[in-house]
Design brief:
It is globular, with a radius of gyration of 24 Å. Helix 2 (31-40) packs across helix 3 (56-66), helix 4 (82-97) packs parallel to helix 5 and helix 10 packs across helix 11 (266-275). It has helices at 18-22, 31-40, 56-66, 82-97, 122-132, 142-147, 153-166, 191-209, 228-233, 245-258, 266-275, 281-292, 294-301, 319-328, 335-348, and strands at residues 67-68, 111-115, 136-141, 170-175, 214-220, 236-239. It is 47% helix and 9% strand. The longest helix has 19 residues, at 191-209. The structure holds adenosine-5'-diphosphate.
């Protein structure tokens, strides 16, 4: 009772302490881990309830690898997808910005599913939501939970939701969510993945019933694999389709303009858009990258040395560069696959 209060209480104290978390003395913890844990402690120096009894290295992993303090994507960076942007703004961003208004009847769903072909901007939307709503963004690929974190997935999931609840408002983006919440394979389902799935659903249930400002976004290219329990929790389900012709034009212009390389006429741009029917946003990005190499390759072929090459040696990027890039970069989504998404959207998607 000498008046000395240690900044972090030891095992004998009544509060939660770093040493109680580790189960060992404070010395056993790396400095970086200690710092990370300390940052999550409240003003009283106590670790929030949700993080107690979690392994510090998992908390550190979530804070350093999964949490993104500055997702750095805005609506204006995303081409097209007006329907998705409108729905998301109303359903997610406003409630995160004004939780006082969005309660009772207006209380928002806490689970959003973005489905559609790969490379269409689902991850970008997740990041933009966090950016626009000034929320902390957590990104995890569900397949890494089942592959890289074998046997530890459950603990990591608890750490993820625990840290997110200390960093509210928060957006948890689970990529390839189908690999986590797929339909129960009646006999073959692995015990470990069943437990992981159960843990995940428990965590979701937890923040769904509480007042936490956490939004879970699941993204998938295989929505048909999700089971009924997953669909029930992901109340809003938005189809993120391939980019329209206008959106493709926007991507071309935007990427080239960033480097001061956009010199295409309107006719050339619309010709490229015609030829790129079926390309995803990410295919378009790869196409632009390849096309922008055209002038460089041509200058080198003329004999200019790479070490002496200057801007003046290179002509602007032209239609023919895109035409030859199209030989290299093919659309990555087949029309069969598109049919499956449209069917699923009709049956389970949020159409308005
Ligand atoms: P998904 O999560 O749907 O697989 P991403 O959001 O990761 O796809 O997109 C991959 C990349 O493709 C992005 O970094 C971006 O460069 C490009 N891209 C995809 N869709 C769009 C879009 N609608 N607008 C602008 N760029 C896009």
């Amino acid at each position: 009772r000498g008046g000395f209060v240690p900044p972090i209480r030891n095992n004998g104290g009544s509060g939660t302490t770093i040493s109680r978390v580790t189960g060992k003395g404070d010395d056993s913890m790396e400095d970086s881990t200690r710092k990370c844990i300390e940052m999550l402690c409240g003003p009283d120096g106590e670790l929030p309830e949700k993080l107690r009894n979690l392994e510090p290295r998992l908390i550190e992993h979530v804070s350093n690898e999964i949490m993104d303090r500055d997702p750095n994507v805005r609506w204006n960076d995303i081409a097209g997808l007006e329907h998705a942007k409108k729905c998301v703004t109303e359903m997610v961003i406003w409630p995160l910005l004004r939780p006082d208004i969005f309660r009772g009847c207006r209380s928002p769903g806490r689970g959003l599913l973005l489905f559609g072909p790969p490379g269409t901007g689902k991850t970008m939307i997740g990041k933009a939501i966090a950016g626009e709503a000034k929320a902390t963004f957590f990104y995890i690929s569900a397949s890494s939970l089942t592959s890289k974190w074998i046997g530890e997935g459950e603990k990591l999931v608890r750490a993820l939701f625990g840290v997110a609840s200390c960093r509210q408002p928060a957006v948890i983006f689970v990529d390839e969510i189908d690999s986590l919440l797929s339909q129960r394979k009646s006999d073959g389902e692995h015990e470990a993945s069943r437990r992981l799935k159960t843990q995940f659903l428990i965590e979701m249930e937890g923040f769904d019933s509480g007042n936490e400002q956490i939004l879970l976004i699941g993204a998938t290219n295989r929505p048909q694999e999700l089971d009924e329990a997953a669909r029930r929790r992901l109340t809003k389900r938005l189809y993120i389709p391939l980019p329209s012709s206008e959106a493709r034009a926007w991507i071309i212009r935007n990427l080239l303009e960033k480097d001061g390389l956009f010199m295409l006429s309107e006719e050339e741009t619309s010709e490229i858009c015609k030829l790129t029917e079926g390309y995803s946003g990410s295919d378009m990005k790869n196409l632009v990258k390849d096309a922008s190499m055209g002038p460089l390759r041509e200058a080198l072929q003329r004999g200019v040395e790479i070490t002496k090459l200057s801007k003046e040696d290179m002509r602007s990027v032209m239609l023919k560069d895109f035409e030859s890039a199209m030989q290299e970069v093919r659309p990555s989504v087949s029309s069969n696959e598109l049919g499956t998404y449209e069917e699923w959207n009709k049956q389970f998607g949020s159409l308005s």
